[in-house]
Amino acid sequence: MLNFTFQNPTKVIFGRDAISKIAGEVPRDARLMVAFGAQSARKYGVLDEVLRALAGFDITEFSGIGPNPEYETLCSGIALAREKKIDFLLAVGGGSVIDGTKFMAAAIPFSGEPYLLMENKGAAIRRAMPLGAVLTLPASGSEMNNRAIISRRAANWKRAIMNDFLFPRFAVLDPTKTFTLPPAETGNGVVDTFVHVLEQYLTYPVDGKVQDRLAEGLLLALIEEGPKALREPENYDVRANLMWASTLGLNGLIGAGVPQDWAAHRAGYELTVLYGLAHAQTLAVLVPAMLKVRSTGKKQKLLQYGERVWGISSGAETLRIDAAIERTRTFFETMGLPTRFADCGIKNVDADRVVELLAEHGLATMGESGDVTPGTIREILALC
Ligand code: NZQ
Ligand code: ZN
Fold it and tell me: How far is the CA of 193 from the centre of ligand 2 (A)?
């Protein structure tokens, strides 16, 4: 029986001229901090376009939020924002810049050590500065959700926080800003989005017919449009569909009231910590093996996925399930992501270390039924 509360306060401004509308979303007297990554926002003119749209505002720039946003970097942004008495944050970039900006938004008004906000999945967050996001890489869904994933390499952690104070006030989605994405980032974005949908869909049935059909629709759109984006990077309609799919993939809508998995994501964070793999790359390797090892618990949904998404409707159940998993693997590879450790340059995965880190992070059991144990993780890693 479905039973849930759904709320999403983020306003979406979508389309070619979306950036020109930002000024209307920021209070006229705000002292703004515009946060961005290493190079792309400046190099491809997105930053200039944002600054033009905000002409006349009091603006401080903060650059250098890299992939897997690093705690220490964000602490310097927090110090800068306090010094400049910032009262509104604007992230310009992909998931890393938006996540990092969310963390800064919570930490700036917080009097304790910022890392304390990471404990208990962000439960200690009681307020945050208002923030907006200009998205340049569709993948994380961060632009319209209440999550942030922050890394601290020195302490071997990459952790998620979730708190409603982290929702951006607005998200500016201009698909033309994704034309410059290199094929690897386009592929990462499609695979990450695909797996966000799977983590909320491929569990066990609860008669969430609307959630299922929405999830299947998103998966089909990704399968149709993803490869086109590699062939035609400047095709507006293709980029627009991918952008909207990634936002809807993790804004709470398809996951409302249904069981959720997230074991691939959580184990994937440890692989990023240990081997520096890009987030989506961890998923491309883990998901096919994970679906195989966990196919009994996920049987009904795997059969439904195979039939409705891949058109696999005849044959013995085990064969249909295997075929659905192989189609998934092939799709990730079509998007340019290897699906085996060996093809990512990793010869031997240290399963002991992965399991140890998961336990340290309070993730000794995971998955929609809590049955992904250290033993399951070892079995999955051995298959990768
Ligand atoms: O740093 P710059 O120079 O800007 O380059 C970035 C970066 O190197 C580049 N890029 C971004 N937009 C571009 C572009 N290059 C050319 N043209 C553009 N338009 O792309 C590189 C990767 O950017 P990043 O923001 O790291 O990628 P993504 O959006 O995939 O974000 C990954 C992060 O999001 C987290 C991941 O764990 C990872 O840390 N996630 C956040 C989630 C959330 N908040 O809900 C959920 C996700 O599952 C995910 O865990
Ligand atoms: Zn993800």
Answer: 7
Q: What pLDDT does 253 receive?
A: 98
- Give the closest ligand to the alpha carbon of residue 191: 2
Closest C-alpha to ligand 1, atom 7: 67
* Ligand 1 centroid, distance to 279 Cα (angstroms): 9
Task: Choose among 303, 271, 306, 272: nearest CA to 380.
Answer: 271
Bridge partners (DSSP) of residue 13 are 172
- Every domain of the chain with CATH number 1.20.1090.10 lies at 183-383
pTM for the structure as a whole: 0.98
45: left (phi over 0), alpha (psi -120 to 50) or beta: left
Atom of ligand 1 nearest to the CA of 179: 19
pLDDT, averaged in runs of 10, over the chain (384 residues): 93 98 97 98 98 98 98 98 98 98 98 94 96 98 98 94 98 98 98 99 97 98 98 98 98 98 98 97 98 98 98 98 98 98 96 97 96 98 97
Ligand 1: which residues within 6 Å by Cβ?
37-41, 44, 66-68, 93-97, 99, 136-137, 139-142, 145, 147-149, 177-178, 180-181, 185, 188, 192, 250, 265, 279
Q: Does domain 11-177 have CATH number 3.40.50.11710?
A: no
- Tokens 């990512």 -> residue: 344
How far CA 205 is from CA of 2, 219, 305, in Å, comes to 11, 17, 11
Q: What is the predicted pLDDT for the residue at 1?
A: 78
- Measuring from atom 40 of ligand 1, which residue has the nearest CA? 140
pLDDT value, residue 97? 98
Token pair in block for residue 268: 């994937």
Annotation: CATH topology of 183-383: Dehydroquinate synthase-like, alpha domain (1.20.1090)
